[in-house]
Amino acid sequence: MNEGMENLKQIEELEEDKRTIYRVVDKLEQRISKLEKVLASHAKCIGELRGTELRIHDLKDNNE
């Protein structure tokens, strides 16, 4: 009977560990998603800046 109780306790501990791992994975997935959105936004801003930079160079070249 004692062995059965120990096995049950181990199973409960493993289940709790599994829930903890799922919570950590969920938080990591949320952070990754936020980072992907920020990177996309930054890439868009960089693209816009490069476009502006090209237009400025074009204006300089035309004025010289």
The overall pLDDT average reads 89
Rounded Rg? 28 Å
**Helix-strand sequence:** H
Shape: rod-shaped
By secondary-structure content and strand pairing, the structural class works out as: mainly alpha
Sheet with the most strands, sense and barrel status: none
- In angstroms, what separates the terminal alpha carbons? 94 Å
Number of distinct helices: 1
Beta-strand content bin? under 5%
Poorly predicted residue ranges? none
Fraction of helical residues: over 70%
Characteristic key phrases:
1 helix
Q: Would you mind describing this structure in some detail?
A:
This protein is mostly helical. The protein has a domain at 26-64. Helix content is 97%, strand content 0%. The protein contains 1 helix and no strands. It has one helix at residues 2-63.
